[in-house]
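Practice problem: predict the structure.
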Amino acid sequence: MHILAVFAHPVRESFTGALLDAFLQGAAEAAHSAEIADLYREGFEPRFQPEDFAQFKAGAVPEAIREEQARVDRAEGLAFVFPVWWWSFPAILKGWIDRVMSQGWAYDFSPARSRGQLADRPVLLLGSAGSREGTYRKYRYDDAMAIQIDVGILGYCGLRNVSTRILHDVNDDAVLLAAHLAEARRCGREFGRWPHPATVKPGAVREA
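Answer:
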């Protein structure tokens, strides 16, 4: 399938960048094609603009945002590769969500009912995290992220076939970093082959 990989790290040569490369390598091994939306290097403007607000009145969307939406429309799968900052997306990726997932395209809202409008397809969240997995479990950061992102953003827009892989304890441990890169490569190679979230109980480990 054709995958849009949305990458959000200010340093392309970072470990998160290496995770992106490993993911893309695995995807190529499975004969997937990929397009990269490198938000920093492409100079994406994450701030919601006055012209963006017109979507709620006249349905108008800036041309630059329509181009981003066309990338999503072309994709048969989506991958978000990012560092976990403050238990969520980096601001530039949150801004991409704010602007690209617009009313009338990603969802339709009315006081009576909201409806996601994006065609469901496999979505992978691949995040690098400095904290240990035990910290996430102790404070339920993983559950909070799942509710905010998997349900509140992606599910709201109609994207429910989501798998989240947070790679914890990113530090100078060469063995662990190699294992993380191998996992990212596996996620690319096995992209889309995971249970639908409805079959996974809250708090359970999701397999990519």
